[in-house]
Amino acid sequence: MNVLSIGGSDPSSGAGIQSDVRTFTSLGVHGLTVVTAITSQNTVKFSKTEAVSSKMIKDQLDVVFSDFTVNAIKIGMVYKDSIIKVIYSKLKNIKAPIVLDPVIRSTTNGNLIEKGALTVYKKLLLPLAFVVTPNVSEAEKLTGVRILTKNNVLKCAQKIRQLGAKNVVITGNQFEKGRIDDFVLENSTHYYISGKKLQIVNHGSGCNYSASLAVAIASGKSFCEAVKFAKEFAYNSIKSSQKIGKGVPITNFKKSELEKSLEESILDFKNLKNIYSLIPECQTNFVYSKLHPKSIHDILGISGRIIRTGKSVNVAGSIEYGASRHVASTILAVAKKFPSVRSALNLKYDSKIIEKCRRNGFTVLHYDRTKEPSHIKSKENSSVLWGIKNAIKNETDTPDIVFHKGDFGKEPMIIVFGKNPSNVIKKVSSILWHCRRNS
Q1: Is residue 244 assigned to a domain?
Q2: 252 in a domain, yes or no?
Q3: Cβ distance 251 to 380 under 8 Å?
């Protein structure tokens, strides 16, 4: 998945395109960039800005769109009206969703857009936006509406909608002590997403929010899920801020041990020789659970899938809690009886694999989907829980593999279980080795 950032360069990497690339990389997507301006700034002060020529911006956009499929676009610093016009001319017929982040001033008090350019910005870029994400100050400057009450926020968002943006998120509202509210105007509905206020002045959280929102939208999340994801991502980036320079702390993306472990094992999985041959038609997910999970939201998975493309394997999506339903549900079922089991992935069913696994000491269980009761089939996400529970109900040994042979419209499947992702990889590697040895 490719996400394009159009914006200014920040040599401190706290904000701008450098920050966006850090966000994209942390979320497992490829970041593309078009630089609109070069700034001279650090964590203490903002010094100078030099705009990139319109011709160069046009050339950058041309080469990106001629070579890559762009799944979403984030627009940040545009600086002057000539830049806005060339961006508009190149994006007006693009179908990828656009997240417009109207950056006006930096944390270190630098002007990020010329005064005369704001009118052109509102006329040309706001109508292109799938969503525009101003903070309170930026929303006030776009509309002239002073935000003091919740009614003011609604009025402000409606005025931005009238300028052409499809959806509006106004971040950073403070109506309750210790809380920060993001106001969301989505189509004809509006609501707040509230969170705890962190007493940390930072450099980069606005960019983190809009960049992660672009990733979430590109990955197919509903708009409400996407804004919740972006708020949580920005909150965690502020919470993990580091004082790298002499001034304002820069936001950071700390990964938990569970995330790092799953990420490393996904890479190991991709690098297994001939692993493409074991990817099913529905593709593969790989999950890792917290101890004693109560729901799929306690289980890390891939928001997309591990997919087969010819003889190569790629990851589409990022690692998130609650991202997998089916494979995560198998962990919920198994972990209740065997708490040591916290990781799993699904592979293509092959009777020869089952036979070889049994011969080589794996604990192999199965269930018959053709015997699934009709009331279970009709209830969404119940089939996997029913099947796994039936497979393990009389067992005393921890399962290595559970399989089923499918049913009408249902692909047969193998699930490999382990105490952690590296343990699952060892089992998959062993399966591959035995397959090659006996082929």
Answers
A1: no
A2: no
A3: no
